[in-house]
# Entry
Amino acid sequence: MTGGRERVASVCLPALGEDGDLTRTRELATALFEATPRVAVAGPGLCRADARGWERRGGGEALARRLHRAVRRREADPAGVGIAGSGVAADAASRLAILREEWGGEGSGGDEPTVIVPAGEEAAFLASLPVGLLPVSEETKETLRTLGLGRVGKVAARDREELEARFGPEGIRLHRWARGEDDRVFPALSPEPVPSASMELDGAVRETEPLLFVLRRLLARLCGDLEEEGRCAERVLLRLETDGGETKEAEIAPARPTRREDLLLDLCRAALERAEGAPDGTGLPAPVAAVAVEVPERAPAEVRQGDLFASGRRDPAAVAATLARLRARAPDEEWVVRPDPLPDHRPERRSRWRPVEAGDRPAPGGESGGSAGERDDRLSAEDGGVPGVLRLLPEPRRVGVRADGDRPAALRDDGGVHELAAAEGPERLSGDWWRDPYRREYYRVCTEAGELLWLYREAAEDGEPRWWLHGWWD
# Structure
């Protein structure tokens, strides 16, 4: 491979994992300053160096040789060097160089373990690599392998919203990394100005509504600045100065980065209503003389291409915005919940609902368990309709069934008798023989009225079969 336009070099020490020696990492960074004036620590045993400007000094190969010479002065074993157009690709290249050295292979930059990725080919380079080379948690790596996404290219091909739904904020970062994208390779040389807006009030404000009127103007100015930067707010700091000189702060954390003025205003309103000492959400704990908002943490704005001919296009941020509003308005309520998987094979015991907390993300493996709902593609319309979603009853309900041989033909419950137009099954489920044995035969049935129900038959202690209604499909 040839270098020349790479801008990031990554240097990785061998045999240094998550609990690596911090002293060795600092020594590595110090050594790299001999080769380049700009160095940053990227992780245990992993440092990044600025590779720009080397096209007139021999390209990436020349930089790699210089980095190796600097490392050899302090390390007995050779380090891996990777050079690419993004930090995540360079880090993966340096780790790959180490692996090739351990396997007895040859690097791409000479005798020393080096991998150089041509400019613009970062995504293609990462596509064939295992997800273990990405900087994600071991739990996430194991989940990806279980889902058949063991290669980076398969992760990059997935929809970003799908990964976010399964892994939360880590899913967004994972998708960007799989495509070879980085937020920022090196920290700014000088502190970057924090977007902020403030206003001193003519008189002390004692009610919430006048303060929200001022906040709307400040947030509009703040969101305009973010739009010019092409970024969104990950966190917003609301600061109030009382007429007594006291400063009160509240942190606003949307479910996902945003620059939507209406959402941020709603979250600010909820923070003011929750303020300690606020009388029933109509007033403020103390008269306010000045107000300020700032964005200490930002993220690049995501732009998704729409389909000109698609009807009913969905806003991917709508659900996150709704959850953020609900969570902010009632942080102590438990009506915002998510399924929590349990180690049990019985559908009614496979999950439980638990409250969604700030910063929560879905458990690895996505939705699981009966009460959480299960998609069944066998119930999809042939013309591409939405897959059916199984809704389980809190507990199976005893019903009467008239059978035609072994197959159910009619169902009787509190609503009367329902003739069945179709029945599919049985699907057998059994287990827990050592403590609470069960042995069930499940049937998918359709009533003449078009209802899709889930029934099962199980023998009672007296040996007589009994039928139970377990759920239905939307």
Q: What stands out?
A: The chain is about 25% helix and 30% strand. The two ends are 55 Å apart (CA to CA).
